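assembly run, all chains below
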Amino acid sequence: MTEPVLIFTERGIYCPAGDFHIDPWRPVARALITHGHSDHARPGHGAYLSTEAAAPVIRHRLGEITLETIRFDERRQIGRATVSFHPAGHIPGSAQIRVEVGGEVWVVSGDYKLAADGLCETFEPVRCHAFITECTFGLPVFTWRPQQEIAAEINDWWARTAAEGRHCLLGAYSLGKAQRLLALLDPEIGPILTHGAVENTNAVLRAQGYALPDTHHVTPDLDVKAHPGALVIAPPSALGSTWARRFGRASTGMASGWMRMRGVRRRRGADRGFVLSDHADWPELHEAIRQTGAERIFATHGYTEIFARWLNTQGYQAEVVPTEFGGEDDAAEGTEDAA
Amino acid sequence: MKAFAALFTAVDQSTKTTVKTAALAEYFRTAPDEDRLWTIALFSGRRPKRAVTTTQLREWAAERAGLPLWLLEESYPIVGDLAETIALLLPPATREADHSLASWLEALADMPKRDLEARKAFILDAWDQLDETGRFLFNKLITGGFRIGVSRKLMTRALAQATGQDEAALALRLMGDWTPQSTSWHALVESPDPEENESRPYPFYLAYQLDDGPESLGPTEDWLAEWKWDGIRGQLILRGGSHHVWSRGEELMTDRFPELARAADFIAPGHVFDGEIVAWDGTQPLPFNTLQQRIGRKTVPKKLLKEAPVILLAYDLLEADGQDLRDTPLAQRRARLDALLSDLPPDAPIRPSPRLGFDTWEGLAETRATARERRAEGLMLKRLGAPYLAGRKKGDWWKWKLDPLSVDAVMIYAQQGHGRRANLFTDFTFAAWNGNDLVPFTKAYSGLTDAEFNKITAWVRRNTLQRFGPVRQVKPELVFEIAFEGIQPSPRHKSGLALRFPRMARWRHDKPVQEANTLADLQALLAAYG
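ok done. output:
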């Protein structure tokens, strides 16, 4: 019995042959990072490796770190392991990480979605023997409608609200979801304002060449009245805060996969919930797994126990990856990634 | 159904009452008569009887979705609503049709007459032609209380806006035991002189809780004080030759409390009383658990009539000699009530709830402190100059309850909530020490903030010892102060007792788990107050 390509430790996913971790949650010597969200790219590691496209945001968020970069699809030898990064379609620069040791191939999905969103590099299936998949939305109640339909809903909401002379306040995570929304908005309707957390990320991504429409940063001296009918993009935590008061009787919206559930939508207290996620829905999870050709599946980040149990009835050899988060539906209240 | 679904969406997308009311009023202006009549019925709790079990619905939905039942069962507690879970799981509709709300509801009302195969075929067929919102509403109509953020009060207000009628008059007209099959939109809402209905109750006036002391209420001479009884609020109607008893939830309870029929022996027709139905030992109320044996029984065995006889402790007179008194001040209503009831023989099933004399708020506070001995929950304070209003209105009626009893208990099981609390652990079982064992004695669901529930939810996920379906056994580490209104013996429970209205008063971060209360502490409370 040879050693597995990857093992699951209390620091996270570890490759013994290459002596590195993938998205570890405790400090390690060498970390391969799928993308810049805070539950994947944590501070304190000795050395980081990420895609070129993900690196600027990771640097922006983690500051002074030792970060090497790699191009998508480029192969690199680390110890006895060969690694390469492949587009995951989650946010700009996000990757799945392929690890090959002695002809055995394992892939860590990171977070991913299959449908093209027009902004980030589209998911690319990677054949493998074992697939470690996220399952944030690994329940059959989670199915997404096409992005264009949701974009039409949002633009329609914006146009109607602007016509009433009110602002729209749209809650979205500052890295990824916010920029995806920017690319979907119809700038003909009105001006787009952004919260500082969103605008900082915009600046990083614009410098990389991602095309985003014009936005106005909401600074303390910004005259809100000078931007009638504006749509404001802010992190969910800013909705209902004192920061949001300057927009008066704004109509509030949230864009997230969790908006599929009425209970969550109501608890958030937003007027409108738009079901728009950067994670795979139930059919996409199945499609992604099928495309890998893998027989062994490890479920992580999400409804792991239910999803693994289901996969076992579908002819896969599926297991649950224990994580620091208790491994299950803990994203309901929305960590940064949980969209 | 599409128009009704659009109404639901408009209501569901707003948290503002004015927006909801306007959307509903617009619906009342434009919908066909049958649909608006059914809409009134739905929002006043007149749903057709459930014709299929939720188990059948689950099985059929899983079958239609091509999923194993267990996967639906696992999804349900996460979504937190069965109707919604099923709507989300089903494959897209294969065709489009738009039957009216009334036609769906009439078909549902007709279901009990059909055999099981026909019911299943009907439901599968409905799912196959409704969109997601339509399915959700359809499932809601079948499964349970149709609560979608529209209260009866909001509905009545919208109806008043739509028809230009007085809200209070409408509220009165919507009371009673009508169904959409027994009346029409015209007869119920538009008919300028609705036929006199002898059994029709008045809308109850509901009090607010007095959170601070009564000093803010002004001079004591403006106020009437009486015991706040721990019974069932009821309205006794004596009109024509008959009597009717209504609960606050607008349920006809006449047959459950046959003793009250004898009230007609002492009081002339044309009188309506508001009061509290209590089990009575001849001089004072019996504990609530004695009355509890009568609740839910449609017919009462003789033995129970003898062990738990009820009377009405009347505290208001809404109608006298056929005349509506609600606009006259309480002082006058109360004087007439006392005059009417003061000389009745002791075996009459109706008595005036005594007025409590007091000169100062401090003096009244002393009286209040003795409430538990009088089998009361505290005091009611009512403004003597006030009319009898409809619904919950602030200002004239206050309940000044005793401070609740409380114990510190250890959380041992947790379960996820429903609806708005889906995906959050909000339903907990609490235990008290018995030697080195923790004995469960109550559940509680309320009293904490959303932020606290979020924290507890994260904690539960990391500290689960064992799962029993949706229930998690957790490490016995968290201590909560449990407040409750009463305590009574209960042989059905392992602890031998049961609490009334338990809730979490606070999370005792400061309290080590070893210092939580014991079963002996609870038994001492039972001996003192049970």
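The mean pLDDT of chain B is 91.

Chain B has three domains: 2-143, 205-401, 405-529.

not gonna interpret more than that til we talk
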